[in-house]
Design a protein that fits this description.
The complex is a heterodimer of chains A (232) and B (637). Chain A is an alpha+beta fold. Chain A has one domain: C8orf32 fold (Roll). Chain A is 48% helix and 14% strand. In chain A, the strands form 2 sheets. A 5-stranded antiparallel β-sheet of chain A has the order 6-5-4-3-7, covered by helices on one side. With 637 residues, chain B is α/β, with parallel strands linked by helices. In chain B, 53% of the residues lie in helices and 18% in strands. Chain B has 21 helices and 18 strands. Chain B has helices at residues 3-55, 60-73, 103-108, 137-187, 200-235, 245-257, 275-282, 284-301, 328-342, 344-347, 368-384, 404-416, 455-464, 468-485, 502-513, 516-519, 528-533, 535-547, 579-582, 589-604, 620-626; strands spanning 76-82, 88-93, 116-122, 125-134, 264-271, 309-314, 317-322, 356-363, 390-393, 420-429, 435-445, 452-454, 490-493, 522-527, 551-557, 574-577, 608-611, 630-631. Classes of the chains: A alpha+beta (232), B alpha/beta (637).
């Protein structure tokens, strides 16, 4: 099913014309430039997925890479929708206890896609990272702890990704519990508690390297550090 | 650079690298730890504050208060909230000056931390970004305190290492020092042997040098034995073992003219019956035995009497020069008694008229022929008195001997009142052309008219009264005075009695230490009989004087030649050969050979040889040819 959808996606690509080639060239140059900045090594990520999780995981990563390439040129709103859809459709929701046999585990995009399953913060993190790779800056993105309550059921702790088209405006919410992206004002079932992103964490260089033992002590810094090792 | 210095530098270098390196590593790791802690604190505090702010209604006063409370109660450099548009909403900045750590240290080891950041939410809307940085001063202070403490430990460690290292070095290098001392001693021609060190490398070196020293000493001993045999053959009478006629007469002349003894003395003559008659009565063998017995008795009479010497002057005629007896009668009595007790009982049955004895006084500068004929006349008078009798003639003009108490007063006053003086005699080089040094002879001014007494006259009395030490010190002081006002080197005599005197030796070295610049020009000489009487004391004194830079020699050398191989490890600078070997050297081929051997041996030991009592300048070429390095005496003055 997933394999099929990947094929369909590539088939849906328009055949490139001359202008497209020029665009591709410019885009390639931009890629080199971006690589020199953040240096994500997606080949490494893909080969790690192959090694660790097998063929299916590698295909998921390949599809994810294709998504990134396809959406790169699109407006931000489309990027947000496509990324949200990609993860919501492809990845199963499973608790950490089921996947990792621990109470709480924050998975990197590789682990998340490799296992093909994860819980709310794993969705939020992978979407956050993907959008960042698509050029959406930190000031537009927040991981938000929320209280989720529908009707008379007991409230549960949940995490979503907020996308702020403008930093001062109301955000769009990327939630794994519903398939579409909706503005916050339409999500009366969610109450925000605290938001964070990676701003300020990457500034210090050596101080935040994965070798720094303190980096392993916080879930958030931990997952960021592991991601770096995995080529993101 | 010496081995020990190099070892020390190596140790210091290793210690500095080890301690310095570990210190830098520990400062850096402490700094890293502090940076980590500050970083974690920044992040956590930012998150905590942002979290609590997110829960609050965003009333500006509330936000301000929240931030102020956190800032005032905590340790922050600043806390700031900026809106998404970049406008600063709240800011608190701490002003604090650096305390507890010096500026340069902060510059040398800066602590880098990044401020912590967290997002403040107003419901779904971004309220702002909170940034805060913790105060770092306390981190610098703790880093500085740690460094100072480490440095103190380092210094303590260095001090302990230094002490232990010094001790270890001392133990390791002690045998090396001994070997080096031995090598230096050999270079100075002092032939020492040392105990073999335990270190194998040094042991073989020490063994080789000890072997070499041993062989050299054996060679010297052999040569000394040969020369002693030669000396005996030349200067001794074969039958009696007393001095030969020539040697005795040379000695007598020295007593009459030299400076060594007093101005007056006694000449004793002993005459046995005619030798031919004795041979006829006893047979040749028995006659020789009789002569030997007499010779032994006469020889023993000189024991303990400095300068007293017996010689066989004619077939059955003996003479004894006695510089130390106060009167002729005393000398005659002493020797007469010895012959009566030790010789006569054995021979009286066969030779009842064994001997006659005469004693006459002599004065300095007296004619020797006249003295001998006067002794002969007196002997004739003794013969007229009957067998085995003696006759003594006192000198009418002799000064009455002073009682001991007056001597004491005279000598003490002389020392205290500065009535001691030195008269100088030139010692020239072997070829007679250039001066070597001047020998300062002690003189005592006895009265205001300036009458001078020679050392030979008053030193025996000074020795009896135990006054030689202050006199010798006085001499050294005079010599130092002369050296400071004139050029050239000066030799002074030390009495045989003083060299064993510890107090004197201490005073002497203290005195010399005060004038280090003259020590190199000062020579000390001790008479041979004094050297061998207290050999260990002399060895010690010579070592002390040489350490101060003075030269040390032996004067009147040659009478105790058999012991001279002992001199090999003294490091002596020179010897002055007894005048009795030098007088008449031109005609005495036996002594020429002896002196040539003596010079060779002395030169092998690095010792300069000076001839005493040279009477004529014409002897100088011969002396130089024999190997003498210098000469002095009436012919030179």
């Amino acid at each position: 099913m997933q394999k099929l959808s990947a094929e369909r996606l590539s088939a849906a690509l328009p055949r490139p014309g001359l202008g497209a080639y020029a665009l591709l060239l410019i885009f390639g140059l931009w890629l080199v430039y971006a690589a020199s900045l953040a240096e994500p090594n997606l080949d490494k990520t893909q080969s790690l997925a192959m090694q660790r999780y097998g063929e299916r995981a590698a295909q998921t990563i390949a599809a994810w890479r294709q998504l990134i390439e396809e959406t790169r040129a699109l407006p931000d709103n489309d990027k947000v929708n496509k990324v949200n859809t990609f993860f919501n459709r492809r990845i199963q929701f499973k608790s950490d206890m089921e996947v990792y046999h621990v109470e709480d585990y924050w998975a990197t995009p590789l682990e998340f896609m490799g296992n093909g399953a994860g819980d709310c913060e794993d969705f939020a993190i992978s979407k956050y990272m993907t959008l960042q790779m698509l050029g959406i800056t930190n000031e537009h993105l927040r991981l938000v702890y929320v209280r989720y309550k529908v009707g008379n059921t007991a409230p549960i702790a949940h995490m979503v990704l907020g996308y702020y088209p403008q930093p001062t405006e109301e955000p769009l919410i990327l939630d794994n519990l519903i398939s579409s992206v909706r503005p916050a004002s339409m999500r009366s079932d969610l109450t925000p508690v605290f938001s964070f992103n990676a701003e300020g964490l990457w500034v210090g260089g050596a101080a935040t390297s994965s070798a720094d033992p303190t980096a392993r002590l916080s879930q958030w810094r931990n997952v960021l550090a592991r991601m770096r090792e995995e080529g993101l | 650079m010496s081995l020990i210095k190099q070892l020390w530098i190596a140790i210091a270098l290793v210690m500095t690298v080890a301690f310095g390196g570990s210190m830098i590593v520990s400062i850096l790791s402490a700094r890293h730890y502090l940076e980590q802690q500050l970083q974690v604190k920044n992040i956590d505090n930012a998150t905590a504050l942002a979290l609590s702010l997110s829960q609050l209604p965003k009333d500006p006063v509330m936000v301000e208060l929240q931030v102020a409370a956190q800032f005032d109660a905590g340790h922050y450099r600043f806390i700031r909230i900026t809106s998404p548009k970049g406008v600063t909403l709240v800011e608190r900045i701490g002003v604090s000056k650096l305390e507890g750590a010096p500026e340069w240290f902060v510059k040398l080891f800066p602590i880098h931390t990044t401020p912590g950041q967290a997002q403040v939410q107003d419901n779904w809307i971004q309220y702002g970004t909170l940034t805060l940085a913790s105060q770092e001063i306390y981190a610098y202070k703790s880093l500085w305190d740690g460094t100072v403490e480490l440095l103190l430990w380092f210094l303590l460690g260095a001090a302990i290492t230094g002490v232990v290292g010094t001790l270890a070095m001392r133990i390791i290098t002690r045998p090396l020092g001994q070997v080096v001392d031995q090598a230096q001693a050999i270079a100075e021609r002092r032939f020492l042997t040392i105990a073999e060190p335990r270190t194998p490398e040094l042991r073989s070196v020490a063994r080789a040098m000890n072997d070499m020293v041993g062989r050299l000493k054996a060679m010297f001993t052999e040569e000394a034995t040969r020369l002693e045999a030669l000396r005996q053959k030349v200067n001794r009478d074969a039958v009696t073992g007393l001095s030969s006629r020539d040697y005795f007469l040379s000695h007598l002349r020295e007593a009459l003219q030299g400076d060594q003894f007093g101005t007056s003395g006694t000449l004793v003559m002993v005459r046995l019956p005619d030798l031919n008659e004795l041979n006829a009565r006893l047979g040749r063998q028995q006659a020789d035995a009789l002569l030997k017995d007499v010779g032994t008795a006469l020889y023993e009479s000189g024991n303990g009497r400095i300068g007293q010497r017996a010689g066989r002057v004619k077939g059955a005629e003996f003479a004894i020069v006695c510089p130390t007896f106060a009167t002729a009668t005393e000398a005659a009595r002493d020797i007469h008694e010895r012959l009566i007790q030790n010789v006569l009982p054995k021979w009286s049955d066969r030779v009842p008229d064994l001997f006659h004895l005469s004693a006459v006084r002599y004065q300095r500068e007296q004619n020797m022929g006249e003295l001998l004929s006067r002794a002969d006349e007196t002997l004739a008078r003794a013969a007229s008195q009957g067998p085995n009798t003696w006759q003594a003639v006192e000198d009418d003009q002799a000064k009455a001997a002073l009682p001991a108490e007056q001597w004491r007063t005279l000598l003490t006053e002389a020392v205290d009142g500065g009535r001691l003086a030195l008269s100088f005699f030139q010692v020239v080089s072997g070829d007679g052309n250039s001066p070597l040094h001047r020998e300062g002879m002690l003189r005592l001014q006895t009265d205001d008219k300036g009458t001078l007494m020679t050392a030979g006259e008053f030193m025996p009395m000074a020795a009896q009264l135990n006054l030689t030490a202050p006199i010798d010190l006085g001499v050294v002081k005079l010599a130092i005075e002369h050296l400071r006002t004139s050029s050239g080197d000066i030799a002074v005599n030390l009495s045989a009695e003083t060299i064993a005197d510890h107090a004197f030796r201490h005073e002497l070295t203290q005195l010399l230490k005060a004038y280090p610049e003259v020590c190199k020009r000062l020579l000390f000489e001790v008479p041979e009989y004094g050297v061998f009487r207290q050999f260990d004391a002399f060895r010690e004194l010579a070592g002390q004087l040489k350490q101060l830079g003075c030269r040390v020699g032996i004067e009147y050398f040659g009478q105790r030649f058999a012991d001279s191989s002992k001199l090999a490890d003294l490091g002596l600078d020179y010897i002055k050969v007894h005048p009795s070997y030098i007088r008449g050297i031109a005609t005495n081929e036996g002594n020429q050979e002896f002196l040539k051997g003596l010079c060779n041996m002395a030169h092998a030991l690095g010792i300069t040889v000076v001839a005493l009592g040279v009477e004529n300048k014409t002897d100088l070429p011969l002396l130089a040819a024999l190997g003498f390095d210098g000469a002095t005496g009436p012919g030179i003055r």
